[in-house]
Write the structure tokens for this entry.
Amino acid sequence: MTRPTILPEGPAGASAGRRNMALLIQLRWLAVGGQLATIGIASGPMGIVLPRAPLLAAIMVLIAINFASIALLRRGRAVTNIELTAALLFDVAALGWQLHHSGGLANPFASLFLLQVVIGAILLTPRSSWAIVVAALAALATLRVDPTPLVLPPRYAADPMELYLQGSFVCFLLIAVLLVAFVTRISRNLRDSDAALATSRQRAAEEDHIVRMGLLASGAAHELGTPLSTLSVLIGDWKAAPRLKDDRELQEDLGDMDVAVQRCKAIVSGILMSAGEARGEGPQLTTMRASFNEIVEHTRAVRRPGTVEFNDRFGADVAIVSDPALRQVIGNILDNAAEVSPDWTSITTSRDGDMLVMEIADRGPGFSAEMLENFGQPYRSTKGRPGGGLGLFLLVNVLRKLGGGASVSNRDAGGALVRIFLPISALARGDGETA
């Protein structure tokens, strides 16, 4: 079963600092591997005498920095610019230390400072980027002070410039490959951030729309409350009037009118709850199964007998806090299904790990391609009525506030299918499961 995609909070599911730190960790592992390979090749096949102890000590420091950075990411908080700057400064110091013990400025790999300067310019604030530039210049200046010269074997000592040119070519190739990989990854992160920002803006617009709907519903409730209450009182008076008590047909009509008025009052109250916060007014302690049964019985009471099919596959019951807003938006979906498919509506509840799964199916015309593509957006309706299409919009937003989601599709046998996914913990009372 496919669950809906629920975007985490924040740009692309994480802060930019965390993504940048993860990228630095990957580059540092590449640097550690490259340095080990370089030491092995230079001191092995090439026969160059290297002071392995200080060089390997710098590599151990880089490994320790990586493990510290991984521990920082696992703490789950955002990575600051200061922490990124400190990590890059350690990298500059480690490179300077290694170059000092391997020829100083005569080592062609001194150009690797440029890579760190570029990385700092991309990842850090302008002030921190200049700090990396200053640190790299300071390291280069320090390399002029009594560096450890390389002891070259006779075949390289005769023409050291040839070895320097070969090393420069390898260094250029290394910088070019790492920069392309790095900038490509940064560009992908930026695209992810832009997409997440667009999603956040859309969500903000939708939530602003809900606020405006709430204000409209509140005004409508105030305007409709008084006439509905007046009608309810008048109907009660007519039903109790002595001259009308004996008119059976009129009493039945008055009873139907009373039910209709009460239904209108309930709809107004439900709209108020749906347009407001997910934890609406009047939550009650109940169980998951009792809440299901209440929704099903209410649906069956207003439909023709035998047209509502209920399949309870939830399993062990769970104590929950009943949510009026959630009941209302589910009721809206059931009303829509019954409107397009009056002869059959199916409700199936099940459990997928810690998620409640509810499926509402009908035998109507199904969703159009436009509806499937724009699922969850307001005023997208197959009924063609002005102001229609708010049922699924409210459902998505109420579920999202509770940490859940929804998806829609068309059934192979014909009709529409709405799947609702909701973490049980969002409704659970906390007392555990009941038999």
